[in-house]
Amino acid sequence: MIKKKEDEAPKGAPAWMTTFSDLMTLILVFFILLFSFSEIDANKFRMIADSFRGVFDNEVSMIPYEEQPSSPIENLKDPVDFKVENDKKKEDETLDELLMKIKEYLREHELEGVILASREERGVELVLQENVLFDSGRANIKHAAEPFLKEVAGLIKSLPNMIEVEGHTDSQRIIQPSPYKTNWNLSGDRAANVSNYFVERHAFPSNRFKIAGYADTQSVASNSTEEGRLRNRRVVIVILDNELDEEH
After folding, report:
1. Structural domains in the chain?
2. 239 CB contacts (<8 Å, ≥6 apart)?
3. What is the pLDDT of residues 102-123, one digit of tens each?
């Protein structure tokens, strides 16, 4: 009968290797957790990961090198984006404050029914009915309109925003003889004269203004009634949102 050798070594890896492997796995997991909460950059992480190579020759890497998760700092927005957002926020606040001051002036002078002020997507809009600014069929600004225009000038002169002035009419033909052959001529001249008021009387740079004469092409009410025609005969002053103006 063959006697088993007492000094024959047990099969498989020694027990200490199992403990060592568990320890290395825990350390690797610990570093992965640290990485997920830290701002460590990719190069440093690669150096740490490389230090574990060879320890687990038969193990598959838990984190592919080409698809490493981004650190929190990498998810931050570009500083330029922050500046744009901050500038936009400041401009919105400025235009909202401007609107509030104009509305306060309109209340104090009981002009809310004939001058409308609102915050629209393109900026602050002021809608002035024809009889506030002009005599029927004319484009010369009334003296009675100058106090309001002067107030607006004082509020917007220090702002960098472009200003668009639009002239609108109803669909009625101009009674001849008249300085204006058509409503196109009249609406354009009215817009030009309002812009000229700011430039000549309050020293605004002329390149801050855009003017447009729309005649009756952008009616806001029916031209079949006197009330509707009255609403259509208007001048719109728009203090433009800088961001939207740059897009155009």
Report:
1. 15-75 (no CATH), 79-247 (3.30.1330.60)
2. 95, 98, 123, 124, 126, 156, 159, 161, 163
3. 999 999 999 988 899 999 999 9
